[in-house]
Design goal:
Elements lengths: L7 E6 L4 E6 L3 H6 L2 E8 L9 E3 L9 E11 H5 L2 E5 L2 H15 L3
Antiparallel strand pairs: 1-2, 1-6, 2-3, 3-5, 4-5
Length: 106
């Protein structure tokens, strides 16, 4: 199986209905481990929340990425999931900043 790439979005059912999650871990990690780290995508507006990244017109979904809502997904879960496309480079850049805020990085 090909490793999931950073910025790709997948639909998963984590026990509360199917929801989209975006891969946020780096591609070297994704290739060498059997898991990825992912952030949840929500359709609920989150204005003024610095860890919420609004999706733009160039992205495959409508909503926001919650950079402070992270989970670990296993390769077999990804293989069984439904792909939803990839983030635009502009959104990935915003996500990088939001992840730094969420993790308390400079």
């Amino acid at each position: 199986m090909t490793a999931a790439l950073r910025g790709q979005i997948y639909w998963f059912d984590m026990g509360h209905g199917e929801k989209p999650w975006v891969v946020v871990s780096n591609n070297v990690r994704n290739r060498n481990l059997n898991t990825v780290l992912a952030a949840r995508v929500t359709t609920t507006p989150k204005p003024g929340v610095p860890t919420a990244v609004p999706l733009g017109a160039a992205d495959p979904l409508v909503g926001s990425i919650l950079a402070d809502d992270l989970i670990q997904l296993f390769d077999d879960e990804i293989a069984a999931s439904r792909p939803a496309g990839s983030l635009s480079p502009a959104t990935v850049a915003k996500l990088n900043k939001a992840l730094a805020i969420a993790l308390g990085l400079p």
